[in-house]
Every structure is written in C-alpha cells, then in structure tokens.
Design brief:
The complex is a heterotrimer of chains A (157), B (269) and C (267).
Chain A: H1 3-28, E1 39-46, E2 57-60, E3 63-74, E4 79-87, E5 97-102, E6 109-114, E7 126-128, E8 130-132, H2 137-156
Parallel strand pairs in A: 1-7, 2-6, 5-8
Antiparallel strand pairs in A: 1-4, 2-3, 3-4, 5-6
Chain B: E1 5-14, E2 23-31, E3 35-40, H1 46-54, E4 61-66, E5 69-70, H2 76-83, E6 86-89, H3 101-112, H4 117-130, H5 146-157, E7 164-168, H6 176-193, E8 196-201, H7 204-210, E9 213-218, E10 221-226, H8 228-232, H9 237-244, H10 260-263
Parallel strand pairs in B: 3-8, 3-9, 6-7, 7-8
Antiparallel strand pairs in B: 1-2, 1-4, 4-5, 9-10
Chain C: H1 2-36, H2 39-43, H3 45-55, H4 60-82, H5 91-129, H6 132-138, H7 143-182, H8 186-196, H9 199-227, H10 232-262
Helix pairs in contact in C: 3-7, 4-5, 4-7, 5-7, 5-8, 5-9, 5-10, 7-9, 9-10
Classes of the chains: A alpha/beta (157), B alpha/beta (269), C mainly alpha (267).
Chain lengths: 157, 269, 267
C-alpha cells in the first residue's frame, strides 16, 4: 500500500466522517435554526408552570418564536418567574398574554404568546403582565368529579 | 591505559536483585580498531554487559566508559547522541517488519540526517552492496531467510558509519555458508570503517577465527582472557571444556539431583 | 483454619487492588510521557495519517454495517412499542436520540476496541517481542515518539469520526425500515426528529463521549502493547486484556458521562 493511496483513503475517511457530523447537526438536530439569531429577554410570572422545562419552546400562533431560558421561584409572591429569549425579528405588544399550553393531550409543555393590541412593543428585560398558568391534570379531574357529583345531587332533587 | 580504548569497563557490578548479582567486578579494555569477543555460557551475564555498554542499563557499581564518556552520567539527549556513533546487530536482526529492506537500511539516515533522497539512495545501495544484498532492496523482511535478514540488519547498523559496532549472538541459527559470510563481513566492515567491534557469542570456533582478543565469562566474572591462540591452548578447566566442547567438566552434565536409585520407582525393594 | 484461609484471601484481594492501582499509576505516567513526546507524531503527520488509515479506514466497513443494522433493529423494535401508544410518528425521535446519545459512541467504541484496539496492542507487543523497539532505541530513535504516539493520535482522531458515521448509518437504517418498510410518514419522521434532537445537548455530548472513549481505548491499547511480556503468550494475553479493559472502561465512562450530561440539567 503506497503512501498516496493511504493519503487518499484517509482523506475520504475524514471527509465522510465530517459529512456525517454535518448531517447529524443539520438534518437530525436543529442547528440550522437559532444558532446565530439575536434575541431579547422577556419575563413572565405564573402561578403554576406545570411541566414547562428550560429550553422549552415559546410559540405564537403555533410557530416557534423563542426558547425558555430560565425558570426561578419568587419567594415573596410565591410564583414562578419564567425568563424567555425571544428572537429579535419578532416584536410583541406590551399587553401580550403568555399561557402555558400542552402540545397534544399528553405532550410537552410550551409557552404560547397571544399578541395584544398595545402600540408600544416589549423591550429587553420587560415583564408580561397577563399570564395564564398551566392546566394541572389533577385539578381538572377533581373539578370533573365535583361537577359530576353536583349533577347527581341536582337530579335527585 | 597504554592503548587508546574505545570501551573501558572498570570494576562493573550489576544486580537486579542484590541477592543474585549478574555481574561481579568486571574489568575490560577494548582497544580502538580491534575485534573483541566476549564468550561464555548462556546466562553468564554477557548480554547484560552489552546492555550496560549500550547505556540501556546502569551498573550497580563501577563505571563503563564508552567513546570517552561514562554511560551512567549521560542524560537522554547525550545518550542518544552517543548511540548515533554506535551500531548494534540484534540476535535475529530485529528488522522493522512493516518496512522494506531498502526502507530499513534508510531508517537511520532518514531519522538522523537531512540528506536528500538521491544521496540516501546511494548510501543505502552502498551499504547493501557491502553485505551483498543490493538486489534484495525491494523485498520485505518476511521474504528473507535468517542469514539474509541478519545481513540487512548489519547493513542498517553501519548506515551511519559508527565507531563502535556491537554484535549480540550474530551466529545463532545460521547455516555454514552464512556463518562464513557473516564472519568475513564483521572483519571487513570493521577494517574498512576503521571501527571497533565487540561480539557477544557462544559460537567458539567461528568467533576464535575472527577476533583479535577474547574475554571469557562465567557466573558474572571474567575467568580468562587472551588472544585466540592463547585461549585455544589454555589449561583453565572451564575454558578447556568450552573450547573443546567437552561433555563434562566444571560445567557438569547432570543438573543437581538426589541419588539415582532414590528416583527410580521399580526394583529398589 | 478458617481464619487463615480468609486471611489469605484478603491478602490476595489487597494484593490485586494495590497492583491495579500501581499499574494505573504506571499507565498514567506512560500517557503523560506519550503526550509530551508527541512532537514527532504531529510534525511528521505522515506517520499519524498512516495510523488513521489502519485504525479508522479499516474499521469503516464494520462500523457502517453495524450501524445500519442497529438502526434497523431500533426502528423495528421501537415501532412495535410506540404504536401501542399511538406514538409511532415519534419513531424518528427514538432512533435518533438512542443513537446519537448512547449507541453511537458506545457501540462504535466497543467495535473500535475489539478491531483496532486489539490490532494496535498486538502490533506494538510483537514489535517489542522481536526487539524492533530495542533496535530503534539503539539507533537513538525514541520508540514511544516514533511508534506509540502516532498510533495513539490516530486512534483518538478516528474514534469521533467513526461514532458519527455509526450514528448517521443507523439513522439511515432506521429511516429505511421505519419509512420505507413499515410506512411511518417520512415528514413526521424527520420533523419530529429535528424538533427533539438538540445540537449542543445531544450531538455535541455524543461527540464529547466518543472523544473520551477514543482516548480511553487507544490509551489502553498502546499501553498494554508496550508493557506486554515479550513472548507469544504475553502478547496474546495483552491483546485480550485490551479488549476486556477497554470495553469495561467504555461502559463505566458512559455511565459517568451520561449522569453528568443528561440528568440534573432540566428542572
């Protein structure tokens, strides 16, 4: 096996190895989106964040517009403070609502933004005032059972 | 020292484990330009002595002066510099099996010089011609016979024109023709390079035919020394047994054992 | 009587532990020496390229074929379970995450250890047994710098590339079975995968794992070869030890790295 053949094969090997890495990064993962996007920070307080995780998506009208950057607990108001990185291309009005929604019935949770009508836009570091917490399944079930019990009582009357 | 000595061994002792010394108070002087043999039984310490001269081992006591420097006092860089002036032929050649004959001989030239390729080619062909294997330059070591491999290794060890050439059992396993070839090559290379050669071997007859001086070792000591004629005529019992290949003598035939009758199972009742 | 036997066993155990720790220290010093003397391997890159060929290129076939089969099996098995929960469209996610996070680095590492690691150990061990390393030293060439270091760097460079190729091949195999054979929707397969696999968390962590495994396997391989007793039996036992120790090291390191990387990250 002479030197130039070895060099050729090693070159091919390294090339396809890097191509595989590229394939994995672009086609398999989500590198193409989001790596170099400029973003600004926005905060929101929630009574209950449910199963929301850091790096979860922030969507508006179903389209991903940002990522959850940080989740902290406020010991004074006993609420959760969620910090989000929104893409600089997307500006939202100051009275935008943030809700914690679930994709599908049992899927992962995300923050859904519904734009308001205010003329002023959110700036870096602003806080959203209107929020709706996550739906906790247990509360839903107990409410359902409560309603069922109330219906039964009405019928008996 | 009256003569100019390339190697001087002064009171060298060596032991891996203090209870079993391998070398005991060895004294030797190898004059420049001579071919000297170190002979003895397997296990007498001659290979260890060679390693001390190479600088691979440090003596536990005494000093080994090689090419004007004490081997124990050299740091790695100085040791490597010294080794570039030495050549060593290993017992079975130790050719690099992944390189061709040409590449093997070119190896020291490539590693230690910045000579251009065509000059290296000429030097390699020169060395291979000296050992008679110029035509085998393209072969791989696995395609060579034992004698040929050893000749290529010899060419490789003299590639940088060393001042001191060491041979570790160069005659092992050779056929009579190769024997003759190697002995003549040892003498020719020594004289044409103006070098000094040190041969460690137990092939008595072949070695006595080529060396100028002999040191005889047994159990880690030098027990006899002299010119080949003196050794052949020696009355020393061990030397006598060794040189004449006698079955029994100071080195007994029987390994120590209890009485013969005691070991037999049948018919002792 | 019992106490004497127990004591002997404890002494033996203590001996094994101390000799293992001693050997680990010796191997670490060897690695440090090797890295410090890697100048030749990097300056004369030709040597390292030759070793990348022997360790990497010659492992390509087994890596690609194994990756393909692993991906295909993941797809088959995964579909069986997922479709019970009506989540068969997440098949791409299952295949991709399993491969990129775990199976790619680990299985490729194990295959590399048994193919390339054992070859490196045997080669260095045989060079030692036939006095080639001693001859090199006599010619004033440091055998660690000239023979061992290129093999070490060749292995370390090859390993992440092989792991990436394994994962890519596996995902392709998963696609073949999942979409072409079983009939999962191609769009859902890829889009859900892209949504679930994160570059810095999954891909890069997988790459980091494969680099760590590459260092571990190649280190063990060159050390065992260099330290092997210069006999036929010695070399064969060293080769076996390379494969066994490398495999255990990969699995243990995988556990540690997974614990560090993939848990305790989300709140």
């Amino acid at each position: 096996m002479n030197r130039s053949t070895i060099d050729l094969w090693v070159g091919i090997f390294v090339a396809i190895g890097l191509a595989a890495l590229l394939f994995l990064s672009l086609k398999v993962a989500n590198l193409a989106s989001f790596s170099s996007a400029q973003s600004y920070k926005v905060e929101a307080k929630f009574a209950n964040i449910g199963g929301l995780k850091v790096r979860g998506p922030v969507k508006s009208a179903g389209v991903v517009v940002g990522r959850v950057a940080d989740i902290r607990f406020d010991n004074h108001s006993f609420e959760a403070i969620v910090t989000m990185n929104l893409e600089s291309d997307f500006r939202f009005p100051k009275d935008t609502t943030a809700k914690i929604l679930t994709s599908g019935i049992l899927g992962e949770q995300y923050v859904g933004l519904e734009a308001g009508g205010d003329a002023t836009m959110l700036k870096d570091g602003d806080r959203l005032r209107l929020t709706q917490s996550a739906v906790v399944l247990e509360n839903l079930i107990s409410q359902f059972l409560f309603n069922k019990a109330a219906e039964g009582k009405d019928e008996k009357k | 020292m009256p003569q100019d000595s390339i190697v001087e061994i002064r009171n060298v002792s060596f032991a891996y484990d203090a209870a079993q010394p391998v070398l005991r108070d060895i004294n030797m002087a190898i004059p420049r330009g001579s071919v000297v043999g170190i002979m003895g039984q397997s296990g007498c310490g001659k290979t260890t002595l060679l390693r001390i001269i190479m600088g691979a081992l440090r003596p536990s006591a005494g000093s080994a002066q090689v090419l004007g420097a004490d081997t124990a006092k050299l740091d790695t860089a100085a040791l490597y510099a010294q080794r570039r002036r030495m050549g060593m032929l290993f017992q079975f050649g130790a050719l690099f099996t992944d390189l061709s004959v040409y590449e093997n001989v070119a190896f020291p030239l490539r590693e230690h010089t910045t000579l251009p390729e065509d000059l290296i080619r000429d030097l390699v062909m020169l060395k291979l011609n000296a050992v008679g294997l110029r035509g085998a330059a393209a072969l791989m070591p696995t395609a060579l016979s034992g004698g040929m491999a050893r000749r290529v290794a010899l060419a490789r060890s003299v590639a940088l024109d060393p001042q001191l050439i060491l041979y570790d059992e160069p005659f092992t396993g050779l056929d009579p023709i190769s024997f003759g070839v190697i002995t003549r090559l040892i003498r020719q290379l020594n004289d044409s390079l103006g070098a000094t050669s040190l041969i460690v071997t137990h092939d008595v007859q072949e070695a006595l035919g080529v060396v100028d001086y002999v040191y005889f070792m047994a159990a880690g000591r030098v027990i006899a020394q002299g010119t080949p004629a003196e050794i052949r005529a020696s009355a020393e019992p061990f030397v006598n047994q060794f040189v004449n290949g006698k079955r029994d003598g100071p080195v007994p035939f029987h390994y120590p054992a209890p009485g013969y009758a005691a070991d037999l199972a049948v018919g002792t009742a | 009587m019992l106490a004497a036997g127990l004591r002997a066993q404890l002494e033996r155990l203590g001996g094994v532990v101390t000799s293992t720790i001693w050997r680990l220290g010796y191997a670490s010093r060897f690695l440090a020496y090797l890295v410090l003397h890697s100048g030749t391997a990097l300056r004369r890159f030709r040597l390292t390229i030759a070793e990348i060929y022997f360790a990497g290129v010659l492992s390509l076939v087994i890596i690609l074929v194994s990756g393909l089969f692993v991906g295909m099996v993941l797809s088959l098995q995964g579909y069986e379970t997922l479709q019970r929960f009506g989540a068969s469209e997440s098949l791409g996610v299952l295949v991709a995450l399993s491969l990129v996070r775990e199976l790619g680095p680990v299985v490729a590492g194990l295959l590399f250890a048994s193919r390339a690691g054992s070859a490196i150990t045997a080669e260095i061990g045989l060079m030692k047994a036939t006095e080639q390393l001693a001859a090199m030293e006599m010619m004033a060439v440091d055998p660690v710098a000239r023979v061992v270091a290129p093999r070490f760097w060749g292995g370390v460079i090859s390993m992440p590339l092989l792991a990436a190729l394994f994962s890519a091949s596996g995902i392709f195999g998963g696609y073949l079975i999942g979409v072409q054979l079983i009939g999962v929707d191609a769009g859902a397969f890829w889009s859900q995968m892209q949504a679930a696999v994160d570059w810095s968390n999954d891909i890069m962590n997988g790459v980091i794992k494969s680099v760590v495994f590459g260092v571990a396997v190649t280190w063990i391989a060159v050390f065992e070869g260099f330290d092997a007793p210069p006999t036929a039996e010695g070399v064969s036992r060293a080769t076996t030890r390379t494969v066994v120790t490398s495999s255990l090291a990969i699995l243990a390191l995988d556990f540690i790295l997974t614990a560090l990387m993939f848990t305790g990250g989300s709140r």
